[in-house]
Amino acid sequence: MELMKSIKEYFGCGKLSKDYRGHVIYLSIIKQSDIYDNLIPFFIKYPLQGFKRLDLESFREIAELMKRKEHLTIEGLEKIREIKSILSDKQTRNIGFE
To answer: Domain spans of the chain?
Structure first.
C-alpha cells in the first residue's frame, strides 16, 4: 500500500482501491488531462521495454485520438476499435499475458 501511495503522490493524481479481498491494490488514473500531462510524459521519458512498450504505444495513440476529439466521429471510433482489436490479438498470442 505504501508503494502505491508513493506512486500516486509522484504522479499527483489517481485513485487507489483494493480488490474485494483486499489483496491487490489498484491505481486508477481516469482524468484525461492527468493521462496527457502526467502519465504519458513519464513513459516517454522512461520508456517500457519489451512487448509492453507496444501496448503503451497503442494506448498513447488512443489517448491522442481522444485529445483531438476524434473519438467523437465514426472514423475515429473505428480507429480506436481497430487499435483495441490489435491489442487483444497480441494479448492472446503472448503466453502468460493477461
So the answer is: 47-98
